[in-house]
């Protein structure tokens, strides 16, 4: 919990870097949401391909999350 408070304080003090970190987080959330929605729709249309779709969904979500993590780290490094 203390780490979150430090990150929020850094974002508040940072100005544009804080806005960038927030946009990266929101973008990642939207991206992962779209991945999940598309995967569920695909599984509903082709139930026999559920395993392959699920594996690809997890890989894509991990890649989106990794990019978002790098973006937040870069924004915090700009502050410090």
Short overview:
By secondary structure, the chain is mostly helical. 91% of the residues lie in helices and 0% in strands.
Strand and helix layout:
Elements: H1 2-14, H2 16-45, H3 50-79
Helix pairs in contact: 1-2, 2-3
Task: Specify the CATH class.
Answer: Mainly Alpha
Helix content: over 70%
The secondary-structure class comes to mainly alpha
Poorly predicted regions are none
Q: Termini, distance in Å?
A: 20 Å
Mean pLDDT: 84
Order of helices and strands: HHH
How many separate domains?
A: 1
List the keywords.
80 residues, mainly alpha, F1FO ATP Synthase
How is this structure best described in words?
- The structure is a single chain.
- With 80 residues, the chain is mainly alpha-helical.
- The protein has one domain (13-79): F1F0 ATP synthase subunit C (F1FO ATP Synthase, Up-down Bundle), CATH 1.20.20.10.
- It is built from three helices and no strands.
- The chain has helices at residues 2-14, 16-45, 50-79.
- Helix 1 (2-14) crosses helix 2 and helix 2 packs antiparallel against helix 3.
- It is elongated, with a radius of gyration of 16 Å.
- The model has no long low-confidence stretch (mean pLDDT 84).
């Amino acid at each position: 919990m203390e780490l979150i408070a430090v990150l929020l304080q850094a974002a508040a003090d940072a100005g544009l870097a804080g806005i960038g970190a927030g946009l990266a987080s929101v973008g990642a959330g939207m991206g992962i949401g779209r991945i999940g929605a598309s995967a569920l729709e695909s599984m509903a249309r082709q139930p026999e391909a559920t395993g392959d779709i699920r594996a690809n969904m997890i890989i894509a979500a991990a890649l989106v999350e990794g990019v978002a993590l790098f973006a937040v780290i870069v924004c915090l490094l700009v502050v410090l």
